[in-house]
């Protein structure tokens, strides 16, 4: 493997979202009351999980990205081979499940749901109207990865799974906004591409507000009230800001809602 290959693989893993999802999982585990070692195992499980899904996504997309001249995509640009990247993605997937098994059978099951949803998106559903289902199913399992790390593992509260699912769906719509035209030209016809730019923005705004509303299931926590207020104020801007500015706005609101989820989850997740 060339010396630059590890960095190329890291860039192919979509490191920004990977770090955010990992931090959310660790925060949820800590808020639920998991022991420090188990919080670390949850973080490692989700990190390997998301790295695997991200790299696999770029492996699948490499021919299309190469044809489009996407030099910002390391695999398509030849910085690392597709076969090498695929092997790394598979090893990371196995590592994620092995780490989850060290936590509990419930965490293993939930981590498996997240992993299968991500790979199903990469391999089968990205270019179909069902693309959103992968995010709904995968992120709904995220809080249970955390509560599976408790001394007495249990399913996460309904509101936590619902909020995480809605937030994942909003992230899907927001993530596509900057590359919507490129995706359409490449023949990708997932739900966001079918909704179009305005439809995806409206969907983002509605889903973010709905995420905040779902958090009310945890009780009227001050952080939740503030997060919902921020989402309501920001939502109209998601309808009008161009390109990457709208994406950054939605991600910013999503981060606020995640912080509220962690705060509201203490003792109730």
Layout of secondary structure:
Elements: H1 5-12, H2 15-32, H3 36-67, H4 74-77, H5 82-103, H6 105-125, H7 131-140, H8 142-147, H9 158-176, H10 180-185, H11 191-214, H12 222-238, H13 243-265
Helix pairs in contact: 2-3, 2-13, 3-5, 3-6, 5-6, 6-7, 7-9, 9-11, 9-13, 11-12, 11-13, 12-13
Tally the structural domains: 2
What is the share of helical residues? over 70%
Radius of gyration: 18 Å
- Going by CATH, what is the homologous superfamily of the largest domain? UbiA prenyltransferase
The end-to-end distance, rounded to whole angstroms, is: 43 Å
- What is the helix tally? 13
How many E-type strands? 0
- Poorly predicted regions are none
Largest sheet: none
CATH fold description of the largest domain: Tetracycline Repressor, domain 2
Could you spell the SSE succession in H and E letters? Answer: HHHHHHHHHHHHH
- Beta fraction of the residues? under 5%
- Structural class label: mainly alpha
Question: Can you summarize this structure?
Answer:
This protein has 13 helices and no strands.
């Amino acid at each position: 493997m060339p010396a630059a290959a590890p960095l190329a693989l890291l860039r192919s893993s979509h490191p920004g979202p990977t770090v955010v999802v990992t931090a959310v999982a660790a925060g949820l585990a800590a808020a639920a009351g998991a022991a420090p070692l188990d919080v670390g195992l949850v973080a490692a499980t989700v990190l390997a999980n998301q790295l695997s899904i991200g790299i696999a996504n770029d492996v699948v997309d490499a021919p299309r990205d190469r044809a489009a001249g996407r030099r910002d995509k390391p695999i398509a640009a030849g910085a690392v081979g597709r076969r090498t990247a695929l092997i790394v993605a598979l090893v990371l997937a196995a590592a994620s499940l092995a780490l989850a098994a060290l936590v509990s059978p419930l965490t293993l099951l939930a981590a498996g749901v997240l992993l299968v949803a991500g790979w199903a998106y990469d391999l089968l559903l990205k270019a179909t109207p069902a693309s959103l289902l992968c995010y709904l199913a995968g992120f709904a399992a995220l809080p249970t990865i955390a509560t599976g790390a408790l001394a007495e593992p249990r399913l996460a509260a309904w509101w936590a799974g619902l909020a995480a699912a809605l937030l994942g769906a909003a992230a899907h719509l927001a993530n596509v906004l900057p590359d919507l035209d490129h995706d359409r030209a490449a023949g990708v016809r997932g739900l966001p591409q079918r909704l179009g730019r305005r439809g995806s923005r409206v969907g983002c705004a509605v889903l973010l507000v709905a995420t905040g509303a779902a958090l009310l299931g945890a009780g009227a926590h001050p952080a939740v009230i503030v997060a919902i207020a921020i989402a309501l104020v920001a939502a109209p801007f998601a309808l009008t800001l161009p390109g990457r500015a709208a994406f950054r706005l939605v991600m910013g609101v999503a981060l606020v809602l995640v912080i509220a989820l962690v705060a509201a989850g203490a003792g109730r997740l």
